[in-house]
Amino acid sequence: MACPPDPAEHLDDPRIEAYGMLIEAHNELHHALERNLDVVAGVPVGWLGVLIRLARSPEQRLRMTVLARDMTMSTSGLTRLVDRMESGGVVRREACAEDRRGLLAVLTDEGRQLLASTAPCHIADLDHLLGGALDPDELAQLTDLLRRVRDHVRAVGPPPG
Amino acid sequence: MACPPDPAEHLDDPRIEAYGMLIEAHNELHHALERNLDVVAGVPVGWLGVLIRLARSPEQRLRMTVLARDMTMSTSGLTRLVDRMESGGVVRREACAEDRRGLLAVLTDEGRQLLASTAPCHIADLDHLLGGALDPDELAQLTDLLRRVRDHVRAVGPPPG
DNA sequence: GAGGAGTCGTTGCAGATGCAACCAGTTCTT
DNA sequence: AAGAACTGGTTGCATCTGCAACGACTCCTC
Question: Do B22 and A19 touch (CB under 8 A)?
Fold first, then answer.
């Protein structure tokens, strides 16, 4: 009930705490993965995200726009990322047959090779970091909760352009 | 069992999926909050993080280093962030009595005021975005799982410098 | 108490990101 | 079928970030 010296009135709100944890868990995990993967393979984690998504897609190719949405980044951000990866030879841009505006990011042989050589390391890191904290059931729970948050936010507000 | 055209062998690993969801939920939420808060108040979300942490601390002040750790960012990143916030008049740097190397980031009256005026909006956004996706029990579950991930990663690997 | 190792915070620098503006191509309207 | 409205992707620009290197200070060791 203090007045001037207590601006922390509603600041222990469970939603604020949840969001804080989301940021902190994300950042800690990101930094740890980035550092390790960079040391052993010299590959940024973002590249893996693209490589994995392409590898999972039919024909190992995806439209720039949908790849940007999948990566939850802006199209301009994805343009630069694909630029770098194309310079690195792991993806290639291909014209889109049905829509002459469109471009497809395509996994190259070199990209498949890079993915094959780094994925085991990435999974081992992830197992070390996530598997060490949560058992498989809890991990599945976490994934489910996060998916629902993601889907709801996507449904409510539009993504960045 | 395909050979050349199936690089997606172990790519549906639950740990990869969990990490992907963490990134996507984080990014979607971050963008949505940022856009809205920027429109209504012109304040970056990162500022709120600092303001909230300071407001919750005794004397509304925190050492730069511990603030950086709390924010899960590098000390150099925090230096610049506090620079900007100090220019904006919402925090102030104070010398540390016990350690003459150290500095304390201190919440100013203006900072308290900014927090008071933006926190309700922030909480409303969060309620809209998180509360719309998860009920209170699930939110608490999510927070708990994320906290365990954060703590484990922190314990295993050192933070960035 | 002198010297070396370690910590605190800042700065130069390079890299990555988003927004706004833009051109090319598509689709809707009339 | 012509023009308006829209979508897909790239670019200029500003911002934010982390790492490495640095000076200031502290603490431990001898």
Answer: no
| pTM score of the predicted model | 0.92
Contacts of B72 by beta carbon, 8 Å cutoff, 6+ apart: A23, A24, A27, A28, A31, B159
Yes or no: say if A146 and B21 are a contact pair by the CB < 8 Å rule.
yes
Q: Residue B49's closest CA among B70, B21, B27?
A: B70
Task: Indicate the SS3 state at residue A7.
Answer: coil
* Angstroms from B96 CA to nearest CA on chain A: 21
CB A129 within 8 A of CB A29: yes
CB atoms within 10 A of CB A87: 9
- Chain A and chain B share a number of CB contacts under 8 A equal to 221
Output the distance from B144 CA to D22 C1' rounded to whole Å: 41
> CA at B99, C1' at D25: how many angstroms apart?
8
- Give per-residue pLDDT as tens, A51-98: 999 999 999 999 999 999 999 999 999 999 999 999 999 999 999 999
Rounded to a whole number of angstroms, the distance from the CA of A80 to the nearest CA of chain B is: 18
